[in-house]
Inverse folding.
């Protein structure tokens, strides 16, 4: 790294939290080269390689597929592998761990809460009975695939949880990605688990906490539209409720 | 109590407190709160509309008194502010409706823009109808 | 068996009120609150308004508009307080105040429109 005097630079204010050393987080400022092709993740890798090897953060694929490098950049949840430095220049970038989650170290959050919720909505195909093998595959038409395809694109990056003030206030809220994932299976023609998931999602911790702020869908890097999934589910759940009150003999239980 | 829920078994986790005035931090959140505030304009006008009908029911003097109040600067300014909130409510309501409403014709999903267009068309028809009802 | 929420009841009223308010209220408010008082439009005279409101179908429509609008407010405002001020611990009294007001207002509206 010679010619550093000629190379334009940008400052990163990086959130630091080392639980064995500090009770409250602090910020360290690092000056890194401002290169056209560099994203925030490249700058963090530069810091770790050249300036401070103790910086901790998660990353893997660096191409928007693995969903592990989500962080707050100037207060907005982003995938740092898709956030170019030059779009923040001139000016510095404040890099923080994803909002609304407890911080384990530096830029690393604990995602235990999400893992538990994702499991709770039973994100797998539930069938009443397995078809015998000789009957062949479970076929779907392109229209049937279109029903759920959008909701199946989630990479569990948790940007939606960071954008959701309801989750920030009420951590018991099941939250955008888990509900969108539930819809992904509910709307799959091969699945028969709607009733089971309805029991989980139409409680007060499920969809009814949502007031449709809509930011989850704005920040989603895969256009999953969790806000849309939740509103659709409110309609389904409402129809279900009225049916069970007005036409009780039509419901299964 | 949700804050500090990790403290017992994971004391090393740092848990930031969620700010009470979270909605002033971002334009998108301010817009959200403004959208939610439109309900005040809705209930304000629901009350005014009922008073309007009641004034007609109470006779010409009561109606004249109510019309005089409607002409006061206070009433005009309240109504002007409420009008902008109501239009904001209509626009946000119609724009967000396609997210919740999914309509199928046969096996095909009707696209969101068609639903959006239907919403605005209905709005225009109802508005014209109400103008016709009250001004002719 | 988990307890399903009764929120759908209030949400359905909120949704119906939202549609009615979005379709009807801007035009009505613009006329009675702005255009008639400022004489941008010729206001209907007392007799023709009386004739209009004498029609029970018109009064039924007005009852639907004002009542659903009130329930729309009740539900939305309850969550505005809940989200905007973090008063989850006051959930029960806030809900009672909001929905109670809407129910009382509907009763008052029904009575006064019935005895027009």
């Amino acid at each position: 790294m010679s010619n550093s005097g000629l190379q334009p630079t940008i400052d990163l204010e990086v959130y630091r939290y080392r639980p064995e050393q500090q009770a409250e987080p602090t910020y360290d400022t690092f000056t890194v080269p401002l290169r056209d092709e560099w994203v925030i993740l490249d700058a963090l890798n530069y810091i770790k390689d050249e300036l401070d090897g103790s910086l901790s953060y998660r990353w893997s694929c660096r191409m928007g597929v693995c969903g592990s490098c989500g962080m707050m950049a100037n207060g907005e949840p982003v995938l740092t592998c898709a956030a170019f430095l030059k779009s923040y220049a001139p000016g510095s970038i404040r890099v923080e761990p994803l909002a609304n989650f407890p911080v384990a170290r530096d830029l690393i959050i604990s995602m235990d809460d999400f893992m538990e919720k994702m499991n709770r909505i039973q994100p797998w195909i539930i069938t009443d009975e397995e078809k015998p093998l000789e009957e062949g595959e479970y076929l779907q038409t392109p229209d049937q695939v279109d029903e759920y395809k959008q909701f199946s694109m989630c990479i569990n990056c948790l940007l939606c949880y960071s954008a959701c003030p309801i989750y920030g206030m009420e951590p018991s809220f099941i939250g955008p990605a888990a509900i969108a994932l539930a819809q992904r299976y509910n709307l799959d023609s091969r699945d028969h688990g709607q009733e089971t998931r309805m029991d989980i999602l139409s409680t007060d911790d499920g969809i009814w906490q949502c007031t449709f702020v809509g930011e989850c869908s704005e920040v989603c890097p895969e256009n999953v539209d969790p806000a849309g999934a939740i509103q659709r589910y409110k309609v389904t759940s409402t129809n279900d409720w009225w049916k069970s009150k007005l036409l009780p003999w039509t419901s299964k239980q | 109590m949700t804050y500090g829920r990790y403290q017992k078994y994971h004391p090393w986790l740092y848990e930031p407190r969620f700010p009470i005035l979270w909605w002033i931090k971002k334009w998108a959140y301010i817009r959200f709160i403004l959208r939610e505030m439109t309900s005040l304009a809705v209930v304000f006008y629901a009350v005014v509309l009922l008073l309007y009908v009641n004034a007609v029911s109470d006779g010409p003097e009561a109606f004249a008194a109510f019309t005089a109040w409607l002409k006061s600067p206070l009433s005009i300014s309240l109504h002007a502010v409420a009008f902008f909130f109501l239009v904001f409510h209509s626009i946000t309501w119609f724009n967000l409706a396609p997210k919740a409403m999914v309509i199928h014709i046969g096996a095909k999903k009707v696209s969101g823009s068609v639903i959006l267009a239907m919403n605005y068309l209905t709005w225009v028809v109802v508005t014209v109808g109400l103008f016709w009802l009250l001004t002719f | 068996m988990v307890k399903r929420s009764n929120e759908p009841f209030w949400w359905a009223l909120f949704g119906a009120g939202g549609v009615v308010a979005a379709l009807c209220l801007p035009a009505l408010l613009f006329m009675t609150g702005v255009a008639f008082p400022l004489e941008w439009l010729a206001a209907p005279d007392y007799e023709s308004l009386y004739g209009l409101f004498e029609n029970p179908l018109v009064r039924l429509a007005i009852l639907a508009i004002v009542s659903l609008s009130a329930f729309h407010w009740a539900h939305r405002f309850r969550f505005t307080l809940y989200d905007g001020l973090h008063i989850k611990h006051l959930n029960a009294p806030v809900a009672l105040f909001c929905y109670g007001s809407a129910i009382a207002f509907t009763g008052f509206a029904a009575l006064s429109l019935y005895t027009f």
